[in-house]
Design brief:
With 118 residues, the protein is mainly beta. It is 10% helix and 44% strand. The protein has a 7-stranded mixed β-barrel. It is globular and about 40 Å long. The two termini are 24 Å apart.
Length: 118
């Protein structure tokens, strides 16, 4: 375990503030109730969230530099498996696609899959 979930948010409307949740079902298209976006899930470090308030879905208690190094890796958060795909061009954090849908709750651990041998 390298981090835990400190907060969860959905953004049903682009102009409205986010809704903080204790848990959320993450589907193939992203957190249930979240407006449809190009990237299914947006993860961010707690420090970056406090500093810049990006519209991230999963806030993690980890260093942003460590989070950014997860691009290209498979991670598990709660019952959900994600592939971290890229860093956003205009805000903090990373984007991920949903590999296996499932529920994510505050205090769930972020686990990183072992890198495949090349």
């Amino acid at each position: 375990m390298i981090a835990t979930v400190s907060s969860l948010f959905i953004y049903p409307d682009s102009d409205a503030p986010g809704q903080e949740l204790a848990s959320v079902q993450v589907t193939e298209t992203g957190p249930e109730g979240n407006r449809s976006k190009k990237h299914a899930v947006h993860l961010v470090s707690a420090d970056d969230y406090v500093a810049t308030h990006p519209k991230a879905n999963i806030v993690l208690d980890m260093e942003s530099s460590v989070l950014e190094k997860l691009v290209g890796r498979i991670v598990r958060v709660g019952e959900c498996t994600l592939e971290v795909t890229q860093t956003p061009s205009q805000c903090a954090g990373v984007y991920a696609r949903v590999v296996e849908p499932g529920e994510v709750s505050v205090d769930d651990a972020l686990l990183v899959a072992e890198a495949e041998a090349e």
